[in-house]
Design brief:
Layout lengths: L1 H4 L3 H8 L1 H14 L7 H10 L6 H12 L6 H23 L4 E2 L2 E2 L1 H4 L2 H20 L4 H24 L7 H26 L4 H28 L2 H4 L5 H4 L5 H8 L3 H12 L7 H11 L2 H19 L7 H15 L3
Antiparallel strand pairs: 1-2
């Protein structure tokens, strides 16, 4: 009993959906194969088998189950969502020149940038093959739009990340692109394939959208006040990489001329020196932007929970509600 009580919400979901997750994993391994290019399954397996939580495909399976679905198309959609996610990770690591992900060397480091980009392209193509097999134009529309939004969000982030004119609205647009779009598509297609009512499908979209935003805001906040052993990142990595995230955006909005000059030098121009991170943290403390960011994350988690209220009373609904709490519990 104690072991059950200490399980995290995503672990509870994984246990409840274990048979379907096993089927999705089998489908992923089958569809990432290539007769002519063995590099493709090598690179894909490096990421897919890296021990991620499979949170996005799990959301699709959970949404379909919650809405009473009894077919098997949700398995293809869950695999689709994971392929899209993996493709974006491969591309992101090239764009960000990353050397490590989930504690392991990135594919672009082990192979090369060309392999990462081209295998990412292959996975996008595979994902469209899978979603077409469901025979649902609406599902295709949702996932195609999500894929476009993700790409658009990455380009927007590239241009906005070090621009002090980036405000909270632009930040939210970036977050919706890079994170929330796939969360909301994952939950929405689960409802659509199950034939749920329009109100329920909208609720699932709203849940995924709010969950994704809460997740990303929490991640950005933990960069400045998290435990590096728990997060796998050093405190201040975003600052060193000149990424304008919500805590800094809030500080810039209230900055004096002298403080703005500091942000211009460190973020826009990238001329950082010893003591700058400490100064940045001091300015965030001055304007209490870390706490304000935390409250924003909690607010989005509350919106996610509220969205579930129109959905059937079910153990999975409770787990999804707990999941919204869990993504921000790291901030306590």
């Amino acid at each position: 009993m104690d072991q059950v009580m200490t399980r995290k919400p995503h672990e509870m979901l994984a246990a409840t959906l274990s048979q379907e997750l096993d089927a999705v994993n089998t489908l992923i391994r089958t569809r990432m194969a290539s007769k002519h290019a063995p590099r493709i399954p090598e690179v894909t397996a490096h990421l897919v088998e890296a021990g991620g939580k499979r949170l996005r495909p799990m959301l699709t399976l959970a949404a379909a189950r919650l809405c009473g679905y009894e077919g098997d198309h949700h398995l293809k959609l869950a695999a689709t969502v994971e392929f899209i996610h993996t493709a974006t990770l491969l591309h992101d690591d090239v764009v960000d020149e990353s050397g490590q992900r989930r504690g392991r060397p990135t594919a672009n480091l082990l192979w090369d940038n060309k392999s990462s980009v081209l295998v990412g392209d292959y996975l996008f193509a595979r994902s469209f093959q899978l979603m077409v097999e469901t025979g649902s134009l609406r599902v295709l529309d949702i996932l195609a739009n999500a894929s476009a939004t993700i790409a658009e969000g990455e380009v927007l982030q590239m241009t906005a990340a070090s621009n002090l004119k980036t405000d909270e609205d632009v930040y939210l647009q970036v977050v919706r692109g890079k994170t929330a779009a796939l969360f909301s598509a994952a939950t929405e297609v689960g409802g659509v394939i199950a034939g749920a009512s329009e109100a329920q499908v909208k609720a699932l979209f709203d849940y995924g959208d709010a969950l994704g935003i809460a997740f990303q805001i929490a991640d950005d906040l933990l960069d400045y006040q998290g435990d590096s052993k728990a997060t796998g990142k050093n405190v201040g990595d975003d600052f060193r990489e000149r990424k304008l995230t919500l805590p800094v955006i809030k500080a810039v909005a209230q900055a004096t001329d002298e403080e703005r000059a500091f942000w211009t030098r460190t973020i826009e121009k990238g001329k950082q020196q010893d003591g700058d991170l400490e100064q940045a943290l001091a300015l965030m403390a001055k304007y209490q932007t870390l706490e304000a960011t935390r409250q924003d994350a909690l607010g989005w988690a509350a919106k996610a929970r509220a969205a579930l209220e129109v959905l059937p009373d079910h153990e999975i609904r409770t787990m999804l509600s707990d999941l919204a709490d869990y993504v921000v519990s790291r901030l306590n």
